[in-house]
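Forwarding the complex inputs:
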Amino acid sequence: MQNIKYLFAGLLFGILLVKSEVISWFRIQEMFRLQSFHMYGIIGSAIIVGMISVMIIKHFKIKTLTGDAIVIPDKKFSWGNVYGGLIFGLGWAITGACPGPLFAQIVSGSGFAVTAVTLLSAILGTWVYGLLREKLPH
Amino acid sequence: MDLITQPWPWYVSGPLIGLIVPALLIIGNKTFGISSSLKHICAACIPANISFFKYDWKKENWNMFFVVGIVLGGFLAAQYLSANHPVNINPQTHALLQQQGVKDFNGLLPKDIFSFGELLTLRGFIFMVAGGFLVGFGTRYANGCTSGHAIMGISNLQWPSLVATCCFMAGGFIMSWFILPYLLRL
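Prediction (whole assembly, two chains):
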């Protein structure tokens, strides 16, 4: 039951993904063709708000609801950030979905249940990465 | 009610998405990120003795609750909070896509590409099956996606996340400008 709060957080995120049209394949095409500010505005303003929030949390040493210190692990660089990033970018432009929208597209309207196939395929892609991980350059 | 059912402008939805970062940190010391859920699904369902998937995925349960929430929220928004207008994209994008072979502009995705019938065509297979594979493989290889790297990582001033985000964009530009026009014509 502890985890129900994350379900609600996800629910709000899901509503935002649909209402902002981030899950729209058309919006993603517009973004990559540099023909609209919409997606850049969303990602950019989300980053600014996130950044200010993290600064406030660190500066005032804000604690979690249960009183623990908030810890944000650092991201270590690997060449996987580059190779994997490029591969993901190719897929993002084809499917019009990054992983969050993958989950929301399925229920986004009549006929789009077919994108469950896209999600299953993404799970398969993740699995194949795990399988080949030691052979890939990082 | 109109304000709700209209698409929400970027300056409303973007900052609200940004607030998920502190919300997750404060309610449970969790860092925002979605693509890990795909890894946990692999670890829970098809670990196949691969060391990458041998860890206590139950400890990462919160992430699964979060993505189930996304599905529910997506459903609520699409069913009850939307007027189902076509996406109001730039007319130039519309014209270009039409010229490249997209016919249906009525939904959030083009139905002439994303449908069960199309799955058995080469084009449909590439857009749904191959595309999804690249998203899953690429995000895990990059160790994060738009939420984990672009929003969470850059918010926390992590330069590897900035590198990853630039590569996401570069991959998208390469696909949209140089490859997609051919794929759409298949």
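Chain B touches chain A through 127 residues (CB under 8 Å).
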